[in-house]
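Key idea: predict the complex, not the pieces.
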Amino acid sequence: MHAGSPDEEWREDCAPRRVLELFATKWTSMVLHTLHARHGGTARTGVLQRSLPGISKKMLTQTLREMEASGLITRHVETVVPPAVEYRLTPLGERFVVPVELLYAWGRDNADALDFLVPRPGSRRR
Amino acid sequence: MHAGSPDEEWREDCAPRRVLELFATKWTSMVLHTLHARHGGTARTGVLQRSLPGISKKMLTQTLREMEASGLITRHVETVVPPAVEYRLTPLGERFVVPVELLYAWGRDNADALDFLVPRPGSRRR
DNA sequence: CAGGATCCTTCTGGATACTG
DNA sequence: CAGTATCCAGAAGGATCCTG
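Result:
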């Protein structure tokens, strides 16, 4: 347990980094959580948008596209008018929910310690 | 379990969002993990930098500053020449390590499913 | 050795308008 | 209703040079 040992090198494509990529898009884990905890794993676009106050239509669509490309969700299109699109968690997505929920649970348990972060709504970190 | 219920509103300052703020700086969780898993919770600046191939001196310092401001680590300065600075996980930091490690563990367990992400070193997601 | 100060490039993501 | 296409301000973060 010391420096230099290249056992688990922080290569650009190591597992930890790839997981972080999933958080790179701001809304991913929130969509994941909402889909899972509030809608049982399946929801339509508009429902998701209303469940995530503050997300723009652009970012919702973009996030959903990336999550689909990552294999976290699937997209089902009902060919009707007006179009109805449903997003559903994949088994991989369901599994990813577990650590994400743990992370959020930790946040709730340590809310006091995090109080000094995000002091006032509108200012980001730092 | 449906839309509209404002039980756990996604306000700008809700716990989940504040946790995500901790990941907003790219290297935070990697520094945390390295400090914990490779150095037993305490390490000097240079050691950390060598343990994190690819991090710039600027980002390392900046990340450490923010982590200190967030109460995840403490900074100890040895007043000698050349200066020696040690960073140490706080109890809060130690607790945060738990969900972070679970996240990384999930990544390792699902490495196969994540293989299509980060196809070649040098290109980011998408 | 630790880290501050700049410069500069890339990316994020919000606002808005438009299509089927 | 779902999605696309632009435009654009601001943030993230890498490279480099300088200080005690």
